[in-house]
Amino acid sequence: MLNIFFLSTVLFAASTLAYPQPVPENSSHGLTHKHLSPQGRKAGLSGYIGIQSTPAFAQLAPQLSWYSDYTPNTPSSHGLKGVSMLWGASGSSCGSVVDDRLATFKKMVKKGNVPDIVFGFYEPDCSCPSSSDMTVAEGAADWNALLAPLAKNHGTILGSPSMCKQYDEDYLTPFKAQISRPWDVTAVHINKPNLAEAKKDIEYYVQKYKKPIWVAEFACVHDQPSWQPCTDQGEIDTFIRDVVKYFEGNKHVVAYGPSNGEGLGDVWPLTKDGKLTASGKTYLAAVKGL
User: Could you say which residues form the signal peptide (predicted)?
Assistant: First the structure.
């Protein structure tokens, strides 16, 4: 009998774009190489350590499927899958944030607590302390030592390093040439002010690396000529509604989540003092019922 996955891949290649056939699956965890959307749903949340204990998280959780707090051991909570990230490694000079998370990661793996999916590294193409700041050679060496073995030995799904420079990135191509095991899904950060610019990010990564896309962060930001977070609530609301609809309808996007990190001003963040802001309520409404 003709392999159904192979047939679908061939047909897709003929019409538009084919992803490389995934490595054989031997992961016994939730996600698989063929099914990358947690619980079959895309919407999630990029949060912060402790966000799962907030009232805002409890309100959002019924409509979402995953979240990240940027650590290797993000705990699943309120029915949401905690997604693992190795923020940085020995090649980074960012100090304790790297050292602590790297130590946690190594302890997890040593004890056999291997995640079914892990992302690494966080914006190695930009400087500390907000990004992990690793050269291509350093990032590739750490990837080969720490992440590639998880895919080989445990079937772990690997998410690419996420780029600070968005579609202007110049890191992943030389990085790809130096790693022993390619990533399975491309992690994308979108900090743009409108749907048209967000589409450029997605289209760049789809065409360049031909992998499924996981929008690990998105936020409304005027990033040119300098970084200026959106401050108009109407602009933010439009951006959220537009990109959620776009992500949901884009077959290349397997997951997406808004950012709640630093540098995003006072209006964008979805939570404040543990409660939903106007932006948070807009995101909740946009994903409700999907």
Answer: 1-18
